[in-house]
Amino acid sequence: MLYINGYGLTKPDGTDALPDLAAALQLPDGSYNTSPLPDDMRKKLRRTGAFHSSAVTAAAAATAGLSPERLTQTAIVLVSRFGDQDTTGSFIDDLIDFGLEQGSPTKFAHSNHNTAAAYVARLLGINGPAITAINTQAAFYNGLILARCQLESDSFQDILLLHVESLSMISKVLFEEADGAKYKTILPENIGVLMQSAPQCEAACILFSNAPSDAHCCRINFSDDEIADTPPQSIATPIETVLVDAVTLITKTMTVSTEATCHTANGNGANIVLHLQKI
Amino acid sequence: MTVYITGMGCTSALGSRNKDTLAGFREPVDEKKLLRSGLDTLTFPAPLDREYDSNGNRLRSLDLLLQALDEALDEACLKTFAAPSRVGVCIGTTSASFLNNILFHRKLRSCMLDTSVMKKYISGNPSEFIKKRLELKGPAITIANACSSGTDAIGVGMSLIKSGLCDIVITGGADELHDVPNAGFYALGVTSSGICRPFDRDRDGLNLGEGAGVMILESKASVLKRGVVSTLTVAGYGGSNDAFHITQPDPEGQGIESAIRAALHNAGNLSPDQVGFINAHGTGTLQNDLAEALAFFRIFGGDCRYLSTKGQTGHTLGAAGAIEAVITGLMLRKQRIPASPGFCNPSEDIPMPPVAAETAINSKYAMSTSLAFGGCNSALLLKLEG
Lengths: 279, 386
Known about the structure:
Chain A is an alpha+beta fold. Helix content of chain A is about 35%, strand content about 20%. Chain A is globular, with a radius of gyration of 19 Å. Helix content of chain B is about 30%, strand content about 20%. In chain B, α6 (about 150-160) packs across α12 and α9 (about 255-265) packs across α10 (about 285-300). At the A-B interface, α5, α6, α7, β3 and α8 of A face α3, α4, β5, α6 and α7 of B.
């Protein structure tokens, strides 16, 4: 039996998005968990950017109901379409300004996409494996595949699936290029200032488990539902977000009364279907 | 469920094909073939046949990947795919996951958006590139776990087969020499002033390299259906996170120990004494080599046979785990391992030295390990069947 045992969601400014989502869904207060990041964790994030801090904030909320014993054995899967290009850009800015021999070791280390999952592991005390996957298409679909494989291998009781995207100018133009957007952003004259400003990010986190926890939300099962030649459907989420598939799953988890299904497509007509059942 | 390796391909500074790779260990490193970077560090370029050289039209990582992919597909006798939706791709990389073109960023600061670079980056996502090129419809997953990406990609590929989601998975890793990571490792102060010496007393850092390793993984049903013969399998995979430091491993090697034990458990609680040798991550840095050797000692004891191939390939980052897994498979087939390249003098802090001479082995199992930024550790167990 599989379960969703928690979820977390951040707004572009890094704060908790669940109150906004609950309000949009007209859910009463107390129908979701909120757990602001403790000060000691915030302090340990001081050298990171929004990509890392959003990931930790969402993961902390999703795991709020999990015991420390289970948390330490949890596996992490972090997916993103473009990862943390902002820290890479900032590292390269230094190389341009000061020369190849003057790069910042801190920025270089943090530019590796997998260091966001590393901060989640370090700050939450997780020693299970952490896999980070970057795919311009089907990122969340891949995350579900990876989470499912881990769950079905019976190697781990709990899997933390994170989807994190930057909303910076560079990420925005990458989204537009990858999606073949009809209208594209015209770079402003002050692009240099924008590139150096603190980028915004969104992070969603869902805790999948083989066993219920004190904070369990619903029972789930995966099924493959290959629908060939199905045109991609545009899904309306209750709040504006780039994490459409993840927010859709969180929304269904928050609102399921008896049963619900949630489809995530890979763009080739294949779907992962999650069947949700309220316990 | 048994996961067969039906094809392997390897491109590194040792050579452009599997056969060159093993032969390359018999020769000392030819310093004339190494490149000195703009930061005065030595790097290990990989040979690229003309037919794979896109002359910059696509990322060099993809050129290298295609060269290794074709060799692996040839060995697997795979020209077409009967069920494309049952074929997955899982490739590890570092450089191909970043928009790290310095000229692009220079132009951007002048308000010029070079869309050709963006297109090259987007179309250069390695797993998506292979999926499109071979007209596949299964999952395409690009692992960006820094230096353990290649090992983790093979581990994920194994789980895609075991879960029944795929019959065949094209897996491995690819990375190219690049100014940005070179500047990054230089900034971290972990590059060697000469040729790297993994596990040696005088080790002082790493050299970057480039290349690609590809493994074709298949389920037993697929192997039987296609009538192909395979003597190698992926017996186990394990991973862990140090939760210790962003760039340095846990000094006692507890994280990599946990990953190795997980791989042994995943292989059906295999006893450590059944593992014939370990192809270690062995970067040649003080911290990595010590942490790894301490973990080996605790698990495998003082007679543990291990080596690092980075003294002849350089550290190929996201490709390293895949290249080293292929090399491990090739050595397992030959039942011989070479002397650990670059090793000359035992180090006082390392409990037992790596293999110092070519050695015959008599074992069905071998392990390949990887450690990475972010505290990622992973271990892969290969088995010689029959």
